[in-house]
User: Fold Bifunctional NAD(P)H-hydrate repair enzyme from Sphingomonas vulcanisoli.
Amino acid sequence: MSASHYWPQLEGIEQTAVLTAAETRAAEQALFDGGIAPIDLMEQAGQAAAAIIAERFAGRTMLVACGPGNNGGDGYVIARALAERGFVVRVVALADPRTDSAKAMRARWTGPVEAIAGVAEPAEVAIDALFGSGQTRALAPDLAQWLRAAGKQRIAIDLPSGTVTDTGAAEGDLPNNALTIAIGALKPAHLLLPAATLSDRTVLAPIDLPIPADHKLHLVTPPPLRDPHPGDNKYTRGKVVVIGGAMAGAAHLSAIAAMRSGAGYVELALDQTETATPYALVRRLWNETVLADARISAIAIGPGLDDSAESRAKLEAVLAVDRPAVLDAGALALLKTIGLDALKRVAAPRVLTPHEGEFARLFGRIGNDRLAAVRKAAETSGAIVLLKGGSTVIAAPDGRAAITEIAPPWLATAGTGDVLTGIVATMLAQMPVHGFDAFAAVQAAVWLHIRAAERAGPVLIADDLLFALKTTVAKA
Ligand SMILES: NC(=O)C1=CN([C@@H]2O[C@H](COP(=O)(O)OP(=O)(O)OC[C@H]3O[C@@H](n4cnc5c(N)ncnc54)[C@H](O)[C@@H]3O)[C@@H](O)[C@H]2O)[C@@H](O)CC1
Ligand SMILES: [K+]
Assistant:
């Protein structure tokens, strides 16, 4: 087993806007309307991609596979730029170029262009410039197979061919890429499963693409956490109440995670209490007065909660309190019977943190457009919805959405979701401290969860995250 990052990684991405195919086209059009020539933008894109390739794959033989559209156009630029740097480059065309820019770039490539059928010898590196953000259908199986055989390693230009830009769907048996070079901006398929798993690494080739100010989707980024200052007390650092039930361990994970994320005061309400470590955790017997304290900053409910009448009464009590609340696990099952309207009883933000099964039970089948499904769920419920998984999608009722990088797969183990719930609760409790809103608070929590998992390392168990959180939060 390897402790290093063998799951897909984003590298050096500073521009965190994520654009759909249509938004990318609109941004390009804005440039062209402003007088930039399309071939100049393509030259910039191809040169930027070639510079990245030259640095990382020095000395390898290259085979550039060009499609008929502008992705193929990028391919011709890359071939020329690599040849000028001394690389041995062959170019293969799937079909003649169809766009003006691609035609122009093919004309500037002075070497031979082979037909796909004629390629016998694979190269060390095959560059997939077949299809990019203009892909409209699945990749033909024989083409996928050809691509797999064309190089010992592959690099995808903008997107791996066969992936759907806006959903991350990827049909068929598509080959893996050592590198994907996103052109101008990240697209949803760079972050969403399964497409995101087709690349070991994803980097961004910078071009002068203007990012529309009203774009609504972005990559989850490091949160701006404020350190405590001498004037703080336990209540200014946030009081979190965690309401547990039948399985007390799950609620303990949430409560201790809330503590380790920096909450000033965490209270755990249970059906029975005992004195145990950590002694700093205040354990109380559940009754409704637990929720009567005006100093409560946020509430978490769900981990370890069964579907009994008592549990339902607890959830009803939480939903009546005008304080930020996160609902997970058992609370989501109960919410199904209470009805989503209950989330709107008070003005304070509500956060739902379902995994796929819980999501489907509450909102219906996810289908193959995870992002659209989560956005719709947030809109209809009025809550911030965080769909957990290898790449986590978060949506706010106002249409804003965010996607995480791919999380360490070691997180797929019991109890890690309970930990996330606790972190969410603390970030909600600390909204005034850090000066962010609930949508940002949830992103902060997911980011901390991923970083804590990296810190905890392979074969982590949920309890390890609790300890890893301490350093993670301190360094955020
Ligand atoms: N518009 C521009 O000027 C720029 C575009 N850029 C590149 O252009 C790409 C987008 O170019 P396009 O919009 O031309 O689209 P693509 O080059 O991605 O593909 C479009 C062409 O492929 C066909 N097609 C789509 N999916 C297919 C499939 N599965 N099997 C067979 N044929 C298929 C379409 O009918 C069309 O002819 C980006 O991904 C990026 O690489 C960059 O050069 C930056 C500048
Ligand atoms: K491609």
About this structure: The radius of gyration is 25 Å. The pocket of potassium ion (ligand 2) is lined by residues 71, 128-132, 156-159, 161 (CB under 6 Å).
